[in-house]
Write a structure and sequence with these properties.
three-stranded parallel beta sheet, alpha/beta, about 130 residues, binds magnesium ion
């Protein structure tokens, strides 16, 4: 099976959305999405690299690591300071890289098996 680097958001993806502004008081009790831990830990066990990429700041590092330890999530790397979309004019992320970005999946509330669908994507016009 192909091994991948999974880059996974935390708030609103692994657990309920907790804005940075209230993260100190609400992280510990934040409810996990069903199957999130099992899903990610399975990818970890299969030899994939798990990178957690969050807009949480350095000030929230300790409470975030404590939460991750308490829920038993296996990961290789925690990356803080992802550019925030909340309270900005920006609508989303557009990732550009010379390495293969093989897959991209918007999480919409259910950690299920991944399936293939035919959708339109935006690519560089390099034909
Ligand atoms: Mg999020």
């Amino acid at each position: 099976m192909e091994k991948l680097v999974y880059i996974i958001d935390l708030d609103g993806t692994v657990w309920e959305d907790v804005p940075n502004e209230i993260a100190h008081s609400h992280t510990k009790s934040a409810k996990l999405f069903d199957n999130a831990i099992e899903w990610i830990n399975q990818k970890y066990d299969e030899g994939n690299y798990i990178c957690l990429f969050t807009a949480r700041t350095e000030a929230l590092k300790k409470i975030t690591e404590d939460k991750l330890n308490s829920i038993g999530l296996n990961y290789h790397q925690l990356m803080l300071n992802k550019p925030r979309l909340r309270h900005t004019e920006f609508k989303g992320y557009h990732y550009i890289d010379n390495c293969a970005v093989l897959k991209s999946s918007r999480f919409e509330g259910v950690w299920s098996d991944l399936v293939e669908k035919n959708i339109k994507i935006t690519v560089f016009n390099d034909d």
